[in-house]
Design goal:
By secondary structure, this protein is an all-alpha fold. It has one domain. Helices cover about 75% and strands about 0% of the residues. The protein has three helices and no strands. Helix 2 crosses helix 3. The protein is elongated and about 85 Å long. About 10% of the residues are buried.
């Protein structure tokens, strides 16, 4: 009878277990959110570092066409080709310079390289 009374006097420690579980769940959610922020940040960084050379290529192609008389029927393909060539060339040169001088990565829009 005394054993039965002792068990009844000590309520199960459900509340403490719940708090530990709740703390673990909160910690897990925070870790997931931090990883998601990093992934989103890296995606945005990679988008910016891709778009900037394309914009530079388009601008240089536009400038190049100002000095060249191009027949009307090939303006669009010529612009597309020049944009791709100048954009790729710009990206290549800046990446090579960035390897030696990391601060020059800002020429791609963001100096930080994304991690995959």
């Amino acid at each position: 009878m005394k054993d039965l009374m002792r068990k009844q006097d000590k309520p199960p420690n459900i509340e403490a277990k719940f708090r530990r579980t709740q703390a673990n769940v909160v910690k897990f959610i925070q870790e997931i959110q931090a990883k998601r922020r990093k992934i989103v940040s890296d995606q945005i960084t990679s988008y910016i570092r891709t778009i900037i050379p394309s914009l530079v290529g388009a601008f240089v192609a536009w400038l190049a066409q100002k000095g060249i008389n191009v027949p009307v029927d090939i303006v669009v393909p010529t612009t597309a080709l020049l944009t791709a060539v100048f954009g790729a060339l710009y990206y290549y040169i800046v990446r090579k310079l960035e390897a030696k001088y990391p601060k020059l990565g800002i020429l791609l829009g963001i100096a930080k390289t994304p991690t995959y």
